[in-house]
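[job 0412] stage=complex_fold ligand=heme C status=START
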Amino acid sequence: MFNNPLRKRQYIGSLIGIIIGVATYVILPMKASEDFLSLGPMNTGHEDLSCNACHTDAKGNLMQQLTTNMQYAVGMRKESVPFGTQDIDNKKCLACHDRPNDRHPTHRFLETKFKDAIKKINATECETCHTEHHGVRVVLDDATFCVNCHSDLKVIDDPIDVPHEELIANKQWTTCLQCHDFHGNHVYKTATKIKDTLSLDAISAYLEGGEDPFTSKKKYYPTSEEEWIKQNEKKTK
Ligand code: HEC
Ligand code: HEC
Ligand code: HEC
Ligand code: HEC
Ligand code: HEC
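[job 0412] stage=complex_fold status=DONE, emitting structure tokens
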């Protein structure tokens, strides 16, 4: 078949090329996907997002990062590339979740007066409360973190039947989310009577990823992936 040794070398050469190609693009990522099985499910609302919606950066998309790291793992490359965490900052999230009405915008808490509060709860990062791949909406165990910033709250002409001052004096920090959402994006009327508040069960089911007890009406809705891709195309043109 190979009378010509040059043809033979070319043949073997391209065969090796094909094998490496298949291995890098099919088998190796499959192997890597085993690692993903240890990642939890996507958070509420993110089930249909592609990995690149959050994991893209100038150094290539997730698949490219994976390929590079796999090549590193089998000795084809000298260095691995950073992956995941490092690249995902607030900007990635705000590309789809910019809510100009946010009453707790992350950038606000960069002010030095929040330095001590931020040590207890880092409200400058979405990730503190919304860590991804846990199949939840909010990762905080309890909803009492308002204590870190509102312990000396005074509400003038307080409209509620048990005034804020009293709730706070009695350390009833679980009640806050029973009346107030955190970002202020829900369109609803805040209760003024303790008997009309949302139940703690409904709140914790919501934080864990369940039904939204406030209302399904929002002032701002997130950008869909389709729309996000369009916006990115416009920017890179
Ligand atoms: C909505 C944004 C988002 C999407 C979509 C997303 N991820 Fe992530 N991913 C994150 C964030 C944020 C982290 C950092 C750790 C954390 O918050 O859990 C992360 C961490 C990871 C890590 C761990 C990285 C490390 O260095 O520890 C891997 C692996 C990963 N993601 C893979 C994937 C895959 C595969 C997909 C698609 C099925 C995907 N991610 C989709 C946000 C996202
Ligand atoms: C490509 C756009 C996109 C990116 C990037 C993105 N999201 Fe989302 N997010 C969505 C969409 C779409 C939904 C689903 C909204 C729905 O179901 O109504 C959602 C849902 C959510 C929800 C639940 C919303 C609800 O209605 O209760 C939270 C919390 C959230 N995202 C936080 C984040 C965080 C934190 C990041 C950054 C790590 C992020 N998202 C990145 C598009 C995005
Ligand atoms: C200190 C904790 C904390 C931080 C930081 C935080 N969130 Fe939230 N987030 C919450 C809580 C608690 C809820 C549930 C109450 C509510 O709906 O406002 C929530 C709900 C949401 C929702 C669903 C309700 C809505 O507003 O439409 C989205 C989307 C969301 N967060 C996105 C983000 C993004 C994006 C960031 C970063 C820019 C962020 N969050 C930072 C605690 C936090
Ligand atoms: C990291 C600090 C911090 C945390 C944690 C925090 N807040 Fe706030 N909150 C603020 C600041 C700062 C303001 C703005 C006050 C101002 O502008 O005078 C504010 C304002 C508010 C407002 C009034 C918004 C308006 O437009 O009138 C409500 C309601 C509120 N927070 C509820 C909560 C609830 C409920 C929690 C817990 C789930 C919480 N906050 C956690 C710092 C925080
Ligand atoms: C029974 C419902 C209810 C509970 C419980 C409640 N609030 Fe309020 N809160 C209100 C109402 C009503 C207002 C008036 C403004 C409005 O309608 O949002 C208000 C106002 C506020 C304001 C704005 C104050 C201002 O001067 O503008 C902050 C901040 C606040 N609440 C934080 C909290 C915190 C923190 C907790 C938990 C200790 C809490 N609230 C518990 C109903 C409630």
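The pocket of heme C (ligand 1) is lined by residues 36, 39, 46, 49, 51, 53-55, 83-85, 88, 127, 131-133 (CB under 6 Å).
[job 0412] exit 0
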